[in-house]
Amino acid sequence: AHTKLDLTARVVATSLPDVPAFAARLPEYFPQPLRERHPAAIAGHPLRREIVVTKLVNEMVDGGGITYAFRLGEELSAGPDDALRAYAVTTAVFDLPVLWQRLCGEPGPGGEPPIEVPTTVADDVVLESRRLLDRASRWFLTNRPQPLAVGAEVTRFAGAVRELRAQLPELLRGRERADMGKRADELRAEGVPDADAVAAAALVSGYGLLDVVELTEIAERDREPRDPREVAQLYFALSDHLGIDTALTSVTFLDRADRWHSLARLALRDDLYGSLRAITLDALREVAPGTGVGDAITTWERANASRLVRARAALQEVGTSQRLDLATLSVVSRELRGLAR
Q1: CB proximity list for 260: less than 8 A, separation 6 or greater
Q2: Mean pLDDT of 163-191
Q3: Residues 11-36: pLDDT tens digits?
Q4: Between 68-76 and 259-286, two packed helices, what is the crossing angle to 10 degrees?
Q5: What are phi and psi of 340, to 5 degrees?
Q6: Average pLDDT value over all residues in the chain
Q7: Are 244 and 213 in contact (CB under 8 A)?
Q8: What is the DSSP letter of 109?
Q9: Mean of the pLDDT values across residues 291-314?
Q10: CA distance 211 to 274
Q11: Distance between CA atoms of 328 and 341, rounded to whole angstroms?
């Protein structure tokens, strides 16, 4: 309650309540008969800004947790209004409210049946979805123009991400695909329906699709348009080929005893994803559209042979280790940055 009250007071003082993307939230607060009879009075309500912000903050704290906005402020110096924008964009792009609604035993807005599982299982899936929420929110706050244009960003990313998320079981490679399959089997064993188990197991992997959408648009600007699936295939294939997924998994297990350890983990993860994105773009520019994944990687390696020789030792370390420490990960990150032109 204190978190909500504090955030509401701070956001009301910003321009966020007047953002057109949130205009529909005001009528939702009132009963349907009042909406039909007095739309003008509702639009001019003297507490309209407070009503809109109260609804938005309630949704953010209930969905993201009481520390969501605080952590974005600590990590990125994001204000509470920035956190709200990031929350609105991320949850819409990845359809998270629909997942949460179904886990609460309610049908989805599109008639999707509830996911009726034990509370402990539902909590595990919600926590996994919050990992995606945190990472994607940081991505939008660091990679897109600020303040976030909520409606425009949702329009830009939601359709492409939704389409590619359904294909993740086929797009993932190597260890990442194996881990997703194992987690899906565990969820099935706990009573989660098959399709929902696969979707829940692939939640965090969907984060990389934001980079895929960006890379697809860059290819269009380069006048070599690519199918988003082609870009995604190369992106995840390079992640497996270079051992980046193993490195990212190792980052998850690093110590986070204090704020600085947590920030170091975030910086390493961002560096690894940034290198993967840059390497994928480099590989796309080396080959013509429609080139197979194997041929594209071979061509990219041939064009970067000298840099690969220097990086090979560190990358081989990734391939032979199950979990890497901070020192090793720092070296791996540096070598991967060197491969990204």
Answers
A1: none
A2: 95
A3: 999 999 999 999 889 999 999 999 99
A4: 70
A5: -90, 110
A6: 92
A7: no
A8: T
A9: 85
A10: 9
A11: 22
